[in-house]
Write a structure and sequence with these properties.
Strand content: over 45%
Largest sheet: 22 strands, antiparallel, barrel
Low-confidence stretches: 1-30
Radius of gyration: 24 Å
Helix content: under 10%
Distance between the termini: 25 Å
Structural class: mainly beta
Number of strands: 39
Mean pLDDT: 88
Length: 677
């Protein structure tokens, strides 16, 4: 079900012709070649996703893409921290500044945080990534866009997958699908347990997913999806100083153990999506979604160190798309409206030694809502020339109702009104070469976490929100070229320059007892870089994929009470990042892949006085499938960090006391047995 226009296409193992056959907009074939899209994109198809036999994190797919970097892949309490061209790199935990959609349903909250607790990694059909600001179509926090699609089998199927690996990693996954005449029903269940490489890093999660696709009539399709997850344990080993990390990378920070730092999550999700195809090639699409999440978090300090959050998030998105409005041009027109609502009941308690809950320190209700109108048009004045235009108006409101009045009533509200636009054009120089240019915008309002009030010390935890923190805005300028040489060698090159105003950045107070992360605006920043992707068919059963990105991200104006950081490099992002992957697949269902990942030096603080060293990681996997009628069986072995390289899996930017570093695991083996009936 394509409920949003596909604007992220391919640079992966599929040829461009194959991609054009797979990708559609609103269920109809694109009126022009996907290769003509005037924007930087990456596309991972099902064949490439299947090279990862037993995925535990999204980083196993995304880290090989240019300008895309994932941290904290082994700290399930912090959640994966994804950045695209630097957007999201400043998050203290989780995903920030990037829009994420799963089967076209938004998993990014109205305040800009994204949640992937329930993502079913075992059942993906494709991942599309837009590498750059796209707020005209996707709204708040669209510094980049990740669109994830799950498989929907069209036949009966039962699949079982069992995985055993290093550091007491165990995973079981069961999926069943039943296809009727006009209805397709699927249910999956999974259980994951991981003791973890570092001390105090245990993780456990159970999940149940169900979907029902109903072809009500030939032109009308409905899809229902429900999910329930329970993650009772996700321990946080914490950050270490450079000396501590080098002396004992497996160790946890002492305070994280003393205060039992970590989180537990329960969540349910229910969605309904509808697509109605009119006879004149127009479509009316709708999405309706509801999330309910209960979250408990223990932080490594006493005063206000336990967080209890009850969250409800729901919304609706309606779109009308047609190809008939501009009859003289090969065109598509999209008109849409979106409304979302987020209701957080937040409580903070003192966290006593041993993780014992103490007195109430903060209680407030946080309400965030957004509403938007948007339009997108793509037209071809000539066969070789494509123009793409987008415009969006969005209203966001944040309201806090203070329910802890011992320190006075700090209730209040803030409003942001934002307009975003994009204009792009591509020109097909010859049969295999396309050049494009685009200008696009993004904005991101502060999240509820970023709005934490720094105006009262931790000994008297402040309610309300930071009245001085403003929304971040960015303008992206981009040039690109893509094409092929002799059909066996494809390339994609993108150059970008991003001008950022009021960049949202983290900091800590000077009080050693206050470990709350606060946020402020940097006056101005620029990001410029180059992204290169190549794909080579080496003949026979081999293919070779390469990615490289150069990132020069700096603050132009950033004067703070702690110092003037103007001219400094933005922390948390490597200047150089590259990946190379060799893939072998033969007709006897034997596959082998060897992957090399390079991440350059990353600064850990605004002053650039400390940095995490560069590193190389080598990962390998081999899989053999065979038939044991009526079963199809496969055996897979994966080895990550083959040469036992030390590296920092996560950087805690500007962390108090120099505790910036979270070491990644040593060599990791994973063995997987899969059977399909």
């Amino acid at each position: 079900m394509a409920l949003l226009p596909i604007t992220a296409l391919a640079d992966s193992s599929a040829t461009q012709a194959q991609i054009d056959e797979r990708i559609s907009v609103f269920g109809e074939a694109l009126p022009y070649s996907a290769n003509q899209q005037p924007k930087a994109y990456s596309y991972l198809d099902e064949a490439q996703l299947n090279l990862i036999a037993a995925p535990l994190t999204l980083s196993e797919y995304l880290n090989k893409l240019p300008s895309v970097y994932v941290q904290a892949s082994q700290n399930f309490s912090q959640d994966e921290r994804i950045s695209i061209r630097g957007f999201g790199a400043q998050s203290s935990f989780g995903i920030r500044g990037i829009q994420i959609l799963v089967d076209d349903v938004p998993h990014t909250l109205p305040d800009g945080q994204s949640q992937l607790d329930g993502l079913e990694l075992q059942n993906l059909s494709s991942i599309e990534v837009l590498r750059g600001p796209q707020s005209a179509l996707y709204g708040n926090s669209a510094g980049g866009v990740i669109k994830i699609h799950t498989k929907v089998p069209d036949a009966d199927k039962v699949a079982l997958k069992l995985t055993k690996g290093s550091f007491d990693t165990e995973q079981a996954y069961l999926y069943a699908n039943k296809h009727f005449d006009t209805v397709n029903v699927g249910v999956s269940a999974s259980q994951t347990h991981k003791q973890g490489y570092r001390e105090h890093s245990e993780y456990e999660k159970s999940a149940i997913n169900g979907h029902l696709d109903w072809q009500v009539m030939p032109q009308w399709l409905l899809r229902f999806n429900s999910q329930y997850i329970d993650s009772p344990t996700a321990q946080d080993a914490g950050g270490l100083t450079r000396e501590q990390a080098e002396a004992n990378p497996e160790a946890a920070r002492d305070r994280n153990v003393i205060y039992q730092a970590g989180e537990s999550v329960k969540q349910q999700k229910h969605t309904l999506a509808s697509r109605y195809q009119f006879a004149d090639s127009s479509q009316l699409n709708g999405q309706f979604y509801y999330f309910d999440k209960d979250f408990d978090n223990r932080l490594p300090f006493e005063s206000g160190g336990q967080v209890e959050l009850a969250r409800q998030f729901y919304g609706a998105n309606v779109q009308y798309a047609t190809t008939n409005w501009l009859s003289h041009y090969n065109s598509q027109v999209l008109l849409g409206a979106n409304i979302q609502y987020q209701d957080d009941e937040r409580r903070r308690f003192d966290n006593l030694e041993g993780g014992v809950r103490g007195d109430l320190a903060l209680a407030q209700q946080e309400l965030i809502d957004s509403s938007a109108l948007y339009a997108q048009i793509s037209a071809q004045p000539s066969q070789n020339w494509l123009i793409d235009l987008g415009l969006r108006y969005e209203h966001n409101r944040v309201e806090v109702n203070d329910q802890y009045l011992q320190d006075d009533d700090q209730s209040g509200h803030r409003n942001w009104d934002n307009s975003s636009a994009n204009i792009g054009s591509s020109y097909q120089i010859d049969a295999s070469t396309v050049a494009y240019a685009t200008v696009s915008q993004s904005f991101q309002i502060p999240t509820t976490t970023e709005l934490a009030n720094p105006n009262v010390g931790i000994s008297s935890l402040a309610g309300g929100f930071n009245p001085d923190l403003e929304a971040e805005t960015a303008v992206n300028y981009e040039l690109g070229f893509r094409g092929s040489l002799f059909e066996e060698h494809n390339y994609d090159i993108a150059l970008f320059y991003i001008d950022i105003t009021d960049a949202i950045t983290p900091y800590f107070n000077t009080d050693s007892n206050d470990e709350v992360t606060y946020y402020r605006n940097a006056g101005a920043a620029t990001r410029q870089g180059v992204e290169v992707s190549t794909e080579h068919r080496l003949g026979g059963d081999f293919s070779w994929l390469n990615q490289y990105s150069f990132s020069d991200f700096s603050y132009d104006q950033f004067d703070t009470p702690q110092g003037d950081y103007s001219g400094k490099t933005q922390p948390g992002v490597a200047r150089h990042k590259g990946a190379s992957q060799l893939v072998y697949q033969n007709d006897n269902d034997l596959s082998f892949n060897l992957e090399l990942l390079y991440v350059g030096q990353r600064y850990t603080n605004n002053s650039n006085t400390e940095s995490a060293p560069s590193y190389w990681l080598t990962n390998a996997g081999i899989s053999q499938a065979f038939e044991l009628a009526p079963l199809s069986v496969s055996l897979s072995l994966t080895v990550n960090n083959l040469f036992n390289q030390y590296y920092d899996d996560n950087i805690r930017i500007n962390a108090f006391g120099g505790r910036y570093y979270e070491p990644g695991p040593e060599r990791l083996f994973m063995f997987t047995l899969a059977a399909t009936l």
